[in-house]
Amino acid sequence: MFSHARYKHRVFYSVKALSTTKPGGTQDSSEAVGAPLKHFTAEELLQYDGTDANGAVYVAIKGVVFDVTDNRKAYEPGQGYAIFAGRDASRALGLMSLKKKDAVPNLDGLEEKQIDVLDNWVKFYQKKYMIMGTVGPNASPGRLPAIATAETKPSE
């Protein structure tokens, strides 16, 4: 079983154009080029679910919101990844699930292998999509949450 307490080392998204790392393990967009990061409520994020043919489509992973509009076709209603659009789909990505009930941010009960799968999805989204902000109770406006990845896990 995965335990968040085991991972003492944390890393941050490498988003040079959007944010800068601050002491104490936070990222601040106040000194960044471009628009500051927005903190979304779950209800606000749901507005970016792909149902508006002209609107943006966002997906959140581990509390970080990505703009997936460039790949809209995959996230539109009726398409394979539609369940991820407009929500934090962390659990579903870790489980490799396309079930709507799994498209939630709760990682409780995921095994270490599933967390590794999720971390690989994070890396993929980081490379491919722009970060728009954060979502969730542990996120702050203009700051990206810490994310434990396979490279930063302490050896056992």
UniProtKB/TrEMBL annotation:
SUPFAM superfamilies assigned: Cytochrome b5-like heme/steroid binding domain
| One protein family per Pfam | Cyt-b5
> What are the GO cellular component annotations?
endomembrane system; membrane
SMART domains attached to this UniProt entry: Cyt-b5 (SM01117)
Q: InterPro entries under this entry?
A: Cyt_B5-like_heme/steroid-bd, Cyt_B5-like_heme/steroid_sf, MAPR/NEUFC/NENF-like
The source's superkingdom equals Eukaryota
Q: Sorted alphabetically, which PANTHER family does this protein's record hold?
A: CALCUTTA CUP-RELATED, MEMBRANE-ASSOCIATED PROGESTERONE RECEPTOR COMPONENT-RELATED
Family stated for the protein in its record: Belongs to the cytochrome b5 family. MAPR subfamily.
Name-wise, this protein is Cytochrome b5 heme-binding domain-containing protein
Species, as recorded: Sphaeroforma arctica JP610
Lineage here is:
Eukaryota, Ichthyosporea, Ichthyophonida, Sphaeroforma
